[in-house]
Recover the amino acids of this structure.
């Protein structure tokens, strides 16, 4: 990715071409699992060009015709750590999804869970050239936003306009065609570590696939798990995955903040393995079968066979109480929630009128979490499941597939971003634009 603007426009063009052909795949590369869903776009409204600068511009109808999952390999904290292992896992899951769909897929849209995401709020303002806002005016005001010092080695993943103001009127989704004199824009910029992004792109290309889009895992989990009113009034989505926990805040149907915590369900499994001295596979089974975070009086008397295949008969016959298992799991889950609370406090979440928090992701299914989370995060907490998508198999409708379902919605209904507009970079005398263009040229 040598040029931000051109490479993102190229990926958007690939996505449009794939949708016009009717088939595209989404790829969720997580720490615990890799999921692939094949989407078919059909019907008279299978593809429409962008119709606005809103959060769901150019909506399209689709259905899932192929789905597959496999255990993730070579991924830690949502980042590729062993290229060959991850490549093998991606090839496996893509081939299985293609077999289920009975067709070949060339273009995929992937999500990024790690990479230390950081959010920035940008603002720009321009004077209109005519009496009404044109497409060119929108491009100019987006280009007029000051580029913050995001640091070396960082790359822009999302650059989304979240609010337009025309003269004294604010809160506009699409100002084009409206009369006024001064146009202002607020933009949300999300950056991630460049190495993490480059490794994922290289791994996908090694699998003989064309990358037609990239999205933040926290972002896509939010658009799939938050209902429309929550996105409008303000809510936070906490996607507790295997190796990382994504945090995203939505307001007026736009993402205004995203971050991640490098803790997840795999750390809970590791604690069980060390605490009870059992293999990781057995610890994962104990967590899903008998785990919890709130102990009751019965749990002291409920004994769990730990099992094992060490060959030592006495060791393999050990047992532990469920209360002991909960005592191992609860401190780690509390640590994850406290780290999430710190991220929300840093983002100013308390200032929102609506403070709804939705927990999703595979680890959110731990029994008792709905009772523990309100004590740390606040009273307005619920466990969320992704929206229903046509054709999605029953096994892929749980909270663990929030980011995969969100990627489907992102593929079909992408929000307009900075690179969706024709911006002739050499025509603007604005000093802020010159700084932004120089930064893009130097770093991409």
């Amino acid at each position: 990715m040598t040029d931000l603007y051109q490479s993102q426009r190229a990926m958007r063009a690939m996505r449009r071409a794939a949708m016009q052909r009717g088939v595209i795949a989404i790829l969720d590369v997580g720490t615990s699992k890799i999921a692939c869903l094949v989407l078919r776009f059909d019907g008279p409204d299978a593809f429409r060009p962008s119709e606005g600068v809103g959060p769901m511009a150019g909506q399209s109808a689709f259905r899932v015709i192929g789905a597959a999952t496999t255990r993730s390999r070579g991924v830690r904290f949502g980042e590729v750590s062993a290229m060959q292992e991850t490549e093998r896992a991606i090839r496996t899951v893509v081939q299985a999804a293609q077999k289920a769909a009975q067709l070949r897929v060339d273009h995929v849209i992937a999500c990024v869970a790690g990479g230390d995401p950081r959010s920035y709020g940008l603002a720009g303002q321009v004077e209109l050239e005519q009496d009404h806002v044109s497409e060119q005016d929108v491009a100019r005001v987006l280009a007029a936003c000051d580029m913050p010092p995001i640091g070396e080695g960082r790359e822009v993943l999302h650059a989304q306009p979240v609010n337009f103001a025309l003269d004294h009127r604010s809160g506009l989704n699409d100002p084009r065609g409206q009369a006024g004199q001064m146009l202002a824009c607020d933009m949300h910029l999300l950056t991630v570590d460049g190495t993490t992004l480059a490794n994922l792109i290289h791994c996908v290309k090694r699998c003989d696939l064309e990358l037609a889009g990239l999205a933040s895992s926290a972002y896509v989990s939010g658009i799939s798990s938050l209902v429309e009113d929550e996105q409008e009034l303000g809510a936070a989505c906490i996607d507790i995955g295997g190796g990382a926990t994504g945090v995203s805040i939505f307001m007026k149907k736009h993402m205004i903040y995203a971050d991640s915590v490098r803790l997840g369900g795999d750390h809970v499994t590791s604690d069980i393995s060390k605490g009870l001295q059992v293999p990781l596979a057995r610890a994962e089974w104990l967590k899903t079968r008998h785990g919890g975070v709130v102990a009751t009086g019965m749990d002291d008397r409920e004994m769990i066979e730990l099992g094992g295949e060490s060959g030592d008969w006495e060791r393999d016959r050990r047992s532990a109480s469920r209360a002991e298992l909960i005592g191992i799991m609860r401190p780690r889950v509390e640590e994850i929630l406290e780290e999430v609370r710190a991220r929300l406090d840093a983002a100013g979440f308390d200032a929102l009128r609506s403070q709804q928090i939705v927990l999703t992701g595979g680890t959110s299914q731990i029994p008792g979490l709905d009772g523990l989370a309100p004590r740390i995060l606040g009273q307005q907490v619920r466990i969320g499941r992704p929206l229903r998508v046509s054709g999605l198999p029953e096994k892929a409708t749980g909270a663990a597939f929030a980011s995969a379902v969100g990627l489907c919605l992102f593929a079909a209904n992408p929000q307009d971003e900075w690179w969706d507009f024709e911006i002739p970079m050499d025509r603007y005398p604005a000093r802020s634009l010159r700084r932004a263009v120089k930064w893009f040229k130097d770093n991409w």
Notes: Confidence is low (pLDDT under 50) at residues 44-52, 54-59, 426-444. The first strand starts at residue 23 and ends at 29.
